[in-house]
Amino acid sequence: MFRIVSGTNRGKVRAENQDCVLSEQVSLAGCDAFLCVVADGMGGHLAGDVASRMAAEELSRSIRAGCLNLHAAKVLEQGFAHANAAVYSAAERHAEYAGMGTTLTAALLLPEQIYICHAGDSRAYMFSGGSLTRLTHDHSVVEELLRHGSISSRDARYHPQRHVLTRALGVSPELRTDCQHVDWQTGEMLLLCTDGLTGVLSDREIEGILREDNDWAAVIRRLIDEALSRGAPDNVTILLAMREDSV
């Protein structure tokens, strides 16, 4: 029913890959669903890697550990709260992890709907009929400046504060998330990615590459290669998920 492919690359500048990508089948109110996650960690040496991996794993654990009778939106909200608490607690307990945090963008795939929860500047898009539609808003200083008309989209790409987040997991005991759900049809595609992709490719450029090939592994390689050709200053992580006809 769902086809999911993902890929990640350290890029050309970072010493480590602090991104994390996860996809797995879960049971939700008696219905088989899939959890898809991308996370982009931040912090000192290895701390960002710990934060992103911990957030994804804690979200998965929360969903698998007793949320079977909750609504999908509540499942994600509760899972994000657990993940935030785990990352924040680890940063408080271990000096080497002080100040670590992570973005987290997650989707629960159901046969008719996708439920999305999000904190940070990793993104979710829907690709349908050859058109790419952005579903999430970045929680960043630059995004707020864009929304208020203080800078142009071109200015945003080179703004000195383009990587400064206004929300992230693990940096505070409390976390505000954006949650939504969208309907989807057979053949439509969900794209989750970190800003290592969107920081160097525009939405229109990503859309063009998605149109070119039905081989998803090739599409992901092409997107990563394009980011690498432009210097890939950050880790690049991409997940594609499509709803297919039931067999």
Q: What can you tell me about this protein's structure?
A:
With 247 residues, the chain is an alpha+beta fold. The protein has a single domain (2-243), classed as 4-Layer Sandwich (Phosphatase 2c, domain 1), CATH 3.60.40. Helix content is 33%, strand content 30%. The strands form two sheets. Strands 2, 3, 4, 5, 6 and 9 form a six-stranded antiparallel β-sheet that branches. β2 and β3 form a beta hairpin. α1 (47-64) runs antiparallel to α2. The relative contact order is 0.21.
Number of DSSP helical runs: 7
> How far apart are the termini?
8 Å
Strand content: 25-35%
Number of domains: 1
Q: In this structure, how is the largest beta sheet organized? A: 6 strands, antiparallel
Summarize the structure.
The protein has 247 residues and is of the alpha+beta class.
SSE blueprint:
Blueprint: E1 2-9, E2 19-28, E3 31-42, H1 47-64, H2 72-93, E4 101-102, E5 104-109, E6 113-119, E7 123-128, E8 131-134, H3 141-147, H4 153-158, E9 178-183, E10 189-193, H5 195-198, H6 203-212, H7 216-229, E11 236-243
Antiparallel strand pairs: 1-11, 2-3, 3-4, 3-5, 5-6, 6-9, 7-8, 7-10, 10-11
Helix pairs in contact: 1-2
